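Q: I have 149 residues here and want to know how they pack in 3D. Can you give me a structure?
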Amino acid sequence: MKRTLSLFLMLALALVCFCGCERSLEPSDGIHTDYDGVYLTIDSIDADGDHPILNVTWHNETDQTVTFGLWYTVEYLDGDEWKNIQIADYAVPEIACMLGPGERGAQSYTTKYFNILREGRYRVRTEFYIPELQVGTKSTWAEFDLSYK
């Protein structure tokens, strides 16, 4: 009985803390990539629902065609280490998207399958490759901050 009451009080306290707070998601500046010239930027974050949507632009400032798929992950910066915060499996269609030299492309990523609750720095990370160069798979990511006001 005491355990059930304690659990109920903890849940009630958590609801009071979160209900009075407004969630704020803000993209951070910077270009983050394993390969110069190919990177993501966050244009906007649709945070109205339970699961924010990250609207990004892929940038290809190289003279090569870049190929990327729809796979992505969201990670949380815990101290100085990025941690995967996936909480549910999700299916990703195996579709190859191509971005020609100097082109940009829009993409949206949902946070539905990730635990985005704690204040702090997050990033959406995805992979790409450049078939002509045979340099292997590279990563690019865009960071954003979550705070409660």
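Q: Anything worth noting?
A: The two ends are 35 Å apart (CA to CA). The chain has a mean pLDDT of 87.
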